[in-house]
Design a protein that fits this description.
alpha/beta, globular, Rossmann fold, 9 helices, 4-stranded antiparallel sheet
């Protein structure tokens, strides 16, 4: 049983077909990277999987359950998590408060509105464990807006893990980062527990091939190539269309 499967997925925007008959099967614990040039349909694919867009055709299954028509929050409750290309932190809140909100959102006490959050010490304990695990506990009381951009991206990854996803979609987590920040975020993703299946859009080829178990290359809305990193590196079509051919 695949952790995530899409079958014949298509999406039209008026007369434009952004995705055409995309089929993927991602196994539990796999790290799958989606590569492709701008306009290839990568973010559209993510928006379909998470329910922000409805497909024109095709099906989406999460651990063999058809979620094609489920709302985004219903998919999240089944264990589907996502990060976005732009930061989504609450900038005026501290790092701790941002993490606490994510932890509370994944806990049954989110429905207990008649008691203050301080009445549930296990929420803070879990938030502190997460920040400690990822070496950001010393930044807990710093407002999110005062973090470096690389630190903000790391906190966003912690927020994603706080929801205890079974499948996590990461949309260009190193976009806009310096080489040093990119290395830190890539190393963090590399340490994610293997019981979390990861689907990753990544523009940095070195990062993508370092993290991937398998790679799917999209081009003009269709699957151009798929395979291990070794196979993708040797594919002439990928070299020409995505990487670009080297001049003599």
């Amino acid at each position: 049983m695949s952790a995530l499967a899409v079958d014949g997925l298509s999406r039209d925007f008026g007369g434009l077909r952004a995705l055409h008959q995309v089929t993927l099967a991602i196994e539990p614990g796999e790290r799958r990277v989606i590569l492709g040039p701008n306009g290839a349909g990568k973010t559209t694919l993510f928006n379909l999987i998470t329910g922000l867009l409805a497909p024109t055709a095709g099906r989406i299954r999460l651990f063999d359950r058809d979620v094609t028509r489920l709302a985004p929050h219903a998919r999240a409750q089944l264990g589907l998590g996502r990060t976005f290309q732009i930061t989504t932190l609450f900038p005026k809140l501290s790092v701790m408060d941002n993490v606490l909100l994510a932890v509370q959102g994944a806990d049954p006490v989110r429905f207990a509105l008649h008691r203050p959050r301080a009445a549930y010490p296990h929420l803070r304990e879990r938030a502190e464990r997460l920040l400690g695990q990822w070496d950001l506990l010393d930044r807990a009381e710093v407002p999110a807006r005062r973090l470096s951009y690389g630190e903000q991206r790391q906190v966003e990854l912690i927020l994603a893990l706080a929801t205890e996803p079974r499948v996590l979609l990461l949309d260009e987590p190193t976009a806009g980062l310096s080489p040093a920040e990119t290395a830190s975020v890539a190393a963090m993703i590399g340490r994610f527990p293997r019981d979390v299946t990861i689907l990753l859009i990544e523009h940095d080829m070195d990062v993508a091939l370092e993290l991937a178990d398998r790679v799917t290359v999209l081009h003009q809305g269709v699957v151009l190539a798929e395979g291990t990193t070794a196979v993708i590196k040797k594919d002439a079509r990928v070299t020409e269309i995505y990487l670009g051919t080297e001049s003599d």
